[in-house]
Design a protein that fits this description.
The protein has about 400 residues and is of the alpha/beta class. Helix content is about 25%, strand content about 35%. It has a six-stranded mixed β-sheet, with helices on both faces. It is globular, with a radius of gyration of 26 Å.
Length: about 400
Amino acid sequence: MGRVVVSGLSKRYKIYPDSWSRVIEWASGGRSRKHAEKWALRGVSFEVPRGSSLGVVGANGAGKSTLLKILAGTTLPTSGTYSIEGRLGSLLELGAGFHPEFSGKDNIFMNAAIMGIPKAEVRERFEELAEFAEVGEYLLRPVRTYSSGMSMRLAFAVAMMSRPDVLILDEVLAVGDQHFQKKCMDKVREIRMSGTTVLFVSHSVYHVRQICDNAIWIHDGAVVTSGNPINVTDEYVNFQYALSGGQSAQAAKTQAVTAAAGAPHLGEMKITAAGADEWRADFASGEVVDIHLEVRNPAGHGRFHVGIIVNRNDDVQIFSSRSLESGCFFEGSGGSMRVRVPLTLTSGEFYVSGYLLDESCEHVIDQRLSWCRFKVQHGGMEKGTFLANTQWIPSGGS
């Protein structure tokens, strides 16, 4: 129970310019075509094993919500198949299924009846649900008086009532304070431990990485890439940044966007032992490493700098550096450069992001987020992140 299998799922919508066009097409028996076609999904396939969690990322309009609506049974696919084993619970829209004039309490019982949950069970669990929703005295007031955050809290509590085998969540953490987001995260982890399968759509890269075992990136209705949630979300964030910055060099990694022929961009980026060329991922504390960056500039003119930012895997920034401060730069068609760094770090996992900057270093031209990941092993007792070069001086010493 709880397994989800999707095979070649596609969804086409007919777009009419006005209501009369729909009538004319119907009256002509389809001979007078008045609609345009929009494919919200194109051949989407994946499998989610029981008890695992799949994250779905993508821009607005990419097809994520359409996918979840099909799986929830509220929209029919144009082609393709899907199967869901076991009881399904879904939270696709805040407050969907709530009657605005009914109180929160009445809506809990009404939704429980729709899901086939006996009244006796709801009464038994009511205090638990009320405590989780945290709407206080508003539980006895009409839902129309709720804020969006309160509606989301109540909707999440209602979705948890059925103890589903498969749970579909669409942007449930987009509204609500940090405290309630943590409660939702903890609840999702709890139901996953009990064997529930989760499909989780979110624009929050952090939450996808925290909750999900695997992820897919949907662009223009098709799956661009799938796999480890860190790798998938890195690709997605890089793509979005390239588009927002007017650059398509990074976006060209997918088939969704054609690269601009003359755009300067970062090429290969890797981390090695000092003086070496072979990529490595594991180092000892205190070891000296080289971070290599390559720049490609097909136009052949201009002057550029590069920079790096090193973060711990929980996104805490460790340090940064730019070629500007060392008087180094790229010009012409590009080339390669390395920055040498002693790893004065305690044990941990880290990642390097690379940036291509204009001559003034005021504008980022291209970036590679989380491009190089590495681990550091430290055998000492020191805690924290940075191994400071400390000196202990006794009283009267100098």
